[in-house]
Amino acid sequence: MASAKTDAFTQTEQDLAAFAKLLSHPARIAILKVLAKHNACICGEIVEVLPLAQSTVSQHLKELKNAGLIDGTIDGPKSCYCINWKAFEKFNTEFNSLFSTLKTQNEKACC
Amino acid sequence: MASAKTDAFTQTEQDLAAFAKLLSHPARIAILKVLAKHNACICGEIVEVLPLAQSTVSQHLKELKNAGLIDGTIDGPKSCYCINWKAFEKFNTEFNSLFSTLKTQNEKACC
DNA sequence: AATATTTATCGTATTTATGCGATTATTCGG
DNA sequence: CCGAATAATCGCATAAATACGATAAATATT
Fold this sequence. Notes:
The structure is a homodimer. Chain A is mainly α. Chain A has helices spanning 11-22, 26-38, 44-49, 54-66, 85-103; strands at 70-75, 78-83.
């Protein structure tokens, strides 16, 4: 029954929701911060910084990668991740757009 | 085992994640849009607009309200909801802050 | 008072998310 | 070639989210 009737909503709404879902876990926000800070690709460093098991971090990275928010390349036995700034900018813009849209009706009396 | 180790993360990270979670479902984004458009409080109108059952919509409204993103007052047999612009602005600011923070390290080479 | 309207809540079913240990796969160093 | 290191995947357990019908509660209408 919990089959998320996503089809009934706008594509933009679905995109925004998907992006928001990426940010809906502190670990993924923290991962993005680490990636942004070191900018250069990290891998096991993230595991050391975060209070999560390696497999769990890897899973979060996979989600971020599948959504296209980060890129990952293999570098020897290590894995290299970095933020996909193009995708990031796209989401950022869409978010700002949503916020702007909502705020256009601000300030009116209510209830 | 899936007990979300939120304690290990920053308060800001948790706040952002909680806000993002609110936006992580198309229905809630759609609800916010409706509230912003009509600005004045709505109630059953949302149910008519959305492809969801009344109980489901009510549940989403409850989540938004619990998080403080919307206010709700009882108006006779109806219920009045509207966006809490103060809370909204706070989250918007925090989001922009996160985006800015991440972007400060943009443009560098990677992988 | 009786009924209709509106919304919240409850109970339940199902899907998804989260987390970790164990294992596998890949690559580097010797 | 063998062991160490690194990361991905698998399997499983548990928690959270989503959805809806049914019911309850409150108020308006007649």
